[in-house]
């Protein structure tokens, strides 16, 4: 039986929950979230460091606290995960992380068990291409390529081959985390390089408190209007705060 490594809400309890999508093109849509553990990047402002910033990790995170791997991740059979998903009676699924595309073979097995009635949405950092075995299960790609302010090296955060493939995929949307108005120039350069249409670009303010989001939204919203890009808030932060399982 195939197995997936998931993040936890508390020790031994996988982070599988029913909520409103808080970001991007599906904002406000009721969804079942499945948060996977593990990531190939180390964004210093990441709001889910418990999925990757484990004891001994060589990277950096502004929260400084490192997490014990055993109590912050759990491995489950895909059959168990499918049963937990079905219990919510919601057919819109969001696989998030961490970086879920690091576990595509088991994700393909899980989706095969769920069947075609489920709409599968992926949240990814854009550095990993879809595999042939999983691609047919995916309905929507929410890609968030990381900019220079993430703290990752250019080589780590931008897989140009993967980005080129994603840019040609009509299922893909490109959501960029914005901390400073100057970040828009980096987004524009990527859009030009990979021929990403303005209507597929979404800018989101960086922040884990309503106050921070409001402050950045004040200048980010008009910037989006000027550039012809979409804007997204972080609805879950306003509704629930920066907490697991929401």
Would you mind describing this structure in some detail?
By secondary structure, the protein is of the alpha/beta class. The protein has a single domain, classed as TIM Barrel (Alpha-Beta Barrel). It is built from nine helices and eleven strands. The strands form two sheets. An eight-stranded mixed beta sheet has the order 3-4-6-7-8-9-10-11. It has a three-stranded antiparallel beta sheet with strand order 2-1-5. The protein is globular. One of its GO terms (molecular function) is carbon-nitrogen lyase activity.
Form type: globular
**Biggest β-sheet strands, sense, barrel:** 8 strands, mixed
Mean pLDDT: 97
What is the CATH fold-level name?
A: TIM Barrel
The computed structural class is alpha/beta
Strand order within the widest sheet? 3-4-6-7-8-9-10-11
Summarize the topology:
Elements: E1 3-10, E2 13-14, E3 16-20, E4 30-35, H1 69-72, E5 73-77, H2 78-86, E6 92-96, H3 104-114, E7 119-124, H4 132-135, E8 140-143, H5 154-157, H6 160-167, E9 172-178, H7 183-194, E10 201-205, H8 210-227, E11 230-231, H9 235-240
Parallel strand pairs: 4-6, 6-7, 7-8, 8-9, 9-10, 10-11
Antiparallel strand pairs: 1-2, 1-5, 3-4
């Amino acid at each position: 039986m195939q197995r997936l490594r998931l993040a936890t809400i508390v020790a031994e309890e996988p982070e599988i929950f029913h909520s409103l999508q808080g970001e991007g093109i599906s904002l406000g849509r009721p969804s079942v979230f499945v948060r996977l553990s593990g990531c190939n990047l180390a964004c210093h402002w990441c709001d889910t460091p418990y999925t990757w910033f484990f004891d001994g990790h060589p990277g950096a995170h502004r929260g400084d606290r490192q997490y014990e791997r055993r109590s912050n991740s759990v491995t489950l059979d895909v059959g168990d995960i499918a049963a937990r998903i079905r219990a919510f009676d919601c057919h819109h699924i969001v696989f998030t992380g961490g970086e879920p595309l690091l576990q595509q073979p088991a994700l393909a097995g899980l989706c095969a068990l769920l069947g075609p009635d489920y709409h599968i949405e992926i949240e990814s950092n854009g550095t990993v291409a879809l595999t042939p075995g999983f691609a047919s299960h995916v309905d929507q790609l929410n890609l968030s390529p990381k900019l220079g302010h993430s703290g990752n090296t250019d080589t780590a955060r931008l897989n140009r081959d993967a980005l080129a493939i994603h840019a040609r995929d009509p299922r893909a949307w490109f959501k960029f985390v914005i901390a400073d108005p100057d970040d828009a120039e980096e987004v524009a350069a990527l859009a030009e390089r990979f021929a990403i249409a303005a209507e597929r670009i979404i800018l989101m303010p960086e922040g884990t408190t309503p106050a921070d989001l409001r402050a950045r939204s004040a200048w980010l919203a008009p910037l989006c209007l000027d550039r012809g890009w979409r804007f997204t808030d972080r609805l879950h932060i306003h509704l629930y705060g920066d907490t697991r399982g929401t």
